[in-house]
Amino acid sequence: MTEQVTNGAAQAEQGPQFSLQRIYVKDLSFEAPKSPEIFRQEWAPSVALDLNTRQKGLDGDFHEVVLTLSVTVKTGEETAFIAEVQQAGIFLIKGLDAASMSHTLGAFCPNLLFPYAREALDNLVVRGSFPALMLAPVNFDALYAQELQRMQTAGAETAQA
Asked: Can you say where in the cell this protein is located (predicted)?
């Protein structure tokens, strides 16, 4: 019986592995350039959200993924505030083929980081005395697929030139 358990453990180690090691805020910034005057104006916000991801390999099978959410909120022509959070995670990822690794780093990991980034951003904005943003969920799988399509189209255009 001990032999079967040992063989099962060895087989499990050889298969794909994914483990979240740490989630942390890498950078956080908030600016309200028109305060306190902005608080005396009618609140009719327009929100511009920019999101980016980047990843880098660390030692061995460890990878850092950073999700950046940048928000600029204007009321009329005045900038009410600019807020940015870089939410990061360290992930242990083993045994994936190149396509699966790319998808994991480009979509799966950002999906895990987004709720933390959204909470950090809302907290930051509320501390600046503005209403919480309440950002809608983001479909990182769709964004990843769009980026792959864009890269394939750009590659095809480069090959034709």
From this structure: Cytoplasm
Q: What is the CATH architecture assignment of 17-151?
A: Roll (3.10)
pLDDT tens digits in sequence order for the chain, 161 residues long: 555 555 555 545 678 999 999 999 999 999 999 999 999 988 889 999 999 999 999 999 999 999 999 999 999 889 999 999 999 999 999 999 999 999 999 999 999 999 999 999 999 999 999 999 989 999 999 999 998 888 888 876 666 65
Q: Are strands 62-75 and 78-94 parallel, antiparallel or unpaired?
A: antiparallel
CA 33/CA 92 separation, integer angstroms: 40
